[in-house]
Write a structure and sequence with these properties.
Strand content of chain B: under 5%
Oligomer: heterodimer
Helix content of chain A: 25-40%
Mean pLDDT of chain A: 93
Low-confidence stretches of chain A: none
Strand order of the largest sheet of chain A: 8-9-10-5-11
CATH architecture of the largest domain in chain B: Up-down Bundle
Distance between the termini of chain A: 32 Å
Low-confidence stretches of chain B: none
CATH topology of chain A: Rossmann fold
Shape of chain A: globular
CATH class of the largest domain in chain B: Mainly Alpha
Order of helices and strands of chain B: HHHHHHHHHH
Structural class of chain B: mainly alpha
Number of strands of chain B: 0
Strand content of chain A: 15-25%
CATH class of chain A: Alpha Beta
Chain lengths: 208, 258
């Protein structure tokens, strides 16, 4: 079943224009293409952080513009490319993100579970002060994963990971999301990772 | 009355004070601070503006008329708003209007309370209203400028935080309010800090002026305390209004951050 549908000719300002895009439910879809072709903007459009200036995007058959946007975003999460963590330990990160949403934090067990899926063997009490770039990225992603969204949009989630860790991370993520029925849309630059993990690939062309 | 109180400054005596600026210029030259031009411009502007203010005020005091008071206040507020906005370019129109309204409304409200309720004078009595308005609006201008500048800088510097929380489904209001709270704290700190040191480290300008012109120190401190509390209130109210109402102009009903 088609979960997200971008109609042909959907535009954001004068910056990008998309072909028709269909994203199947419970699949792992990769978005590829040269730099500046609108991959990150597509994820923002799908998360309704920005709205298309032409064309339309549908989620489960209804246009995005008509849905209560904050509820929609909580169902279709976007983990942006740039990692943000606040001060404090790992549990503080989860508390900060859920607090900003005005919600109670997930349980400790849920944190540990999400961290494990992201191949980040930390305990919630560990400090984040001395983490490497790749470790920070995995803590960051585990917060989004812990929310158990319907759709998870990931913008270059493996950018700071080495090849081996990236492979383990995507393997775990794919298995967990399949089991939970989470649809994953992932921007990725590594050909070999896309070939190994993609159920579908959407290749965007360079801007004319 | 002045004969017993303050030494009337003779013009030639007064001009001696400008010689001190030579020390400032010498230090600037020595340490490579290239602000000599600004110092000269600032000194000349200050002198001319104050001379004009002195002449205008003398005229208004001799010919008290509510219209003069209202016009004087309007010019003061207009100038303060202009200074805040020109120091913070790129704010949207609604944000600018909110800043102007915050300065004007909280300034006029506290001023009216001070003059009418505390001093028990007519709000159109220029001798009270104009100097008090000057102190209130001047400090408000500094406070808001600082607050808005801090808010814009943290918005710029914390782009990753804004994006991360937005993607997680947090509302723009929940994302922006902590930044506004931080900026409000920054705006209030100078006023609060000056209250802590007041009377020990510094005798504030207004009190000094009153004492020099022959007022009893005990009366002068009452006015000083009242003024500081009034300043604190206006700075807080105007900064709060500017920041917390202003941040609502940064997102639309669809919760898109603009």
């Amino acid at each position: 079943m088609c979960l997200l549908h971008v109609s042909a000719g959907t535009e954001f300002r004068d910056l990008v224009r998309y072909p028709e895009i269909r994203i199947r439910e419970n699949s792992m879809t990769f978005i590829t293409g040269p730099s500046g072709c609108g991959k990150s903007t597509l994820l923002r459009l799908l998360n309704a952080t920005v709205l298309p200036t032409a064309g339309r995007i549908e989620y489960k058959g209804s246009p995005l513009g008509g849905l209560p946007v904050l509820d929609y975003r909580k169902e279709v999460l976007l983990a942006p490319q740039q990692v943000y963590l606040c001060e404090g330990n790992v549990a503080d990160q989860f508390a900060f993100f859920y607090g900003a949403r005005g919600e109670a934090c997930v349980s400790r067990a849920e944190m540990v579970n999400a961290l494990e899926i992201c191949r980040m063997p930390l305990s919630p009490e560990d400090s984040c002060a001395n983490l490497s770039g790749g470790e920070r990225q995995r803590v960051f992603l585990s917060i989004y994963l812990s929310a158990r969204p319907k759709v998870l949009l990931l913008d270059e989630p493996t950018a700071a990971l080495d090849e081996v860790t990236a492979r383990e991370f995507l393997g775990n993520l794919k298995a967990a999301c399949r089991q939970r029925g989470t649809t994953v849309v992932c921007v990725c630059h590594s050909r070999s990772l896309v070939d190994e993990f993609a159920d579908e690939e959407i290749r965007l062309e360079a801007r004319a | 009355m002045n004969s017993g109180g303050v030494v009337q400054l003779q013009l030639w005596q007064f001009s001696l004070i400008y010689l001190l600026l030579i020390i400032v210029i010498a230090i600037m030259k020595k340490s490579g601070v290239e602000k000599t031009r600004l110092l000269v411009v600032a000194s000349v502007k200050m002198t001319v503006q104050l001379v004009i203010a002195g002449l205008v005020l003398s005229y208004i005091f001799q010919n008290p008329n509510p219209v003069f008071v209202v016009v004087y206040l309007a010019v003061m507020i207009g100038f303060a708003v202009h200074r805040v906005l020109s120091g913070n370019p790129g704010l949207n129109r609604r944000f600018q209007a909110i800043i102007a309204a915050s300065i004007a409304l909280s300034g006029v409200f506290v001023l009216a309370y001070f003059v009418c309720a505390v001093v028990g004078e007519n709000i159109f009595n220029p001798q009270y209203t104009i100097p008090l308005a000057g102190m209130l609006i001047g400090n408000t201008m500094t406070g808001i400028s600082l607050g808005i500048k801090t808010f814009r800088e943290s918005l710029q510097g914390q782009k990753a935080r804004v994006e991360a929380l937005l993607g997680f489904g947090a509302s723009p209001k929940a994302i922006l309010q902590p930044l506004a709270k931080q900026a409000l704290e920054t705006a209030l700190l100078p006023t609060l800090n000056s209250m802590v040191g007041m009377g020990i480290v510094s005798l504030p300008g207004m009190m000094t002026g009153q004492i020099l012109s022959g007022t009893m120190p005990t009366t002068a401190i009452l006015y000083q305390i009242a003024v500081i509390i009034a300043i604190c209130t206006v700075v807080t109210a105007a900064s709060f209004g500017s920041l917390f109402l202003g941040l609502r102009t940064l997102y639309d009903p669809k919760n898109q951050i603009l």
